[in-house]
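User: Teach me something about this protein's shape.
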Amino acid sequence: MLFGEFWFEHELCILFADTNQGKSILAVQIGNSISRGEPIPGFKMEAQKQPVLYFDFELSAKQFEGRYSTKNEEGKQFENHYKWDKGLIRVEINPHTDVPEGMSIENYLNQSLEQSISETGSKVLIIDNLTYLKSDTEKSKDAAPLVKGLQSIIDKYECSILVLAHTPKRDLS
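Assistant: First, the predicted structure itself:
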């Protein structure tokens, strides 16, 4: 167990909800828990302390810093930064990187995931969020190749992947 009965080692787990429901905050908590080797209160964790790759396709470094610190009295400087375990490795996408000619964005990102696994030896990946990997994932025919690609990474590297996803927009009335 990585996060109670919700996520086990060598699994692809998808955490989904409407926007602004706390998925990213929970995912960071899960990653922090695993990198420290300390379960989140109320959830079992049987896995050992280990490095976690957190692919953050949502927040810039400054936005992430702001979320996990406080501002000084003038509101200009961040202070009281949360002390992360060095095993929580946050990876931010470089928006200026060009996808190699003849390669799809999905293949390029899968290749980047594999390279990061090889470089760090991490067996736990958190991807925030699925929309960045493939823009139209609301239909199973569009999401299936992406899920198969992630599953092949799990099989090849014996790793665990948590992917965050937004639920489709719907009329609540």
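Now, about its shape. The chain is about 35% helix and 20% strand. Residues 12-166 form a domain with the Rossmann fold fold (CATH 3.40.50.300). If you'd like, I can walk through any region in more detail.
User: That's plenty for now, thanks!
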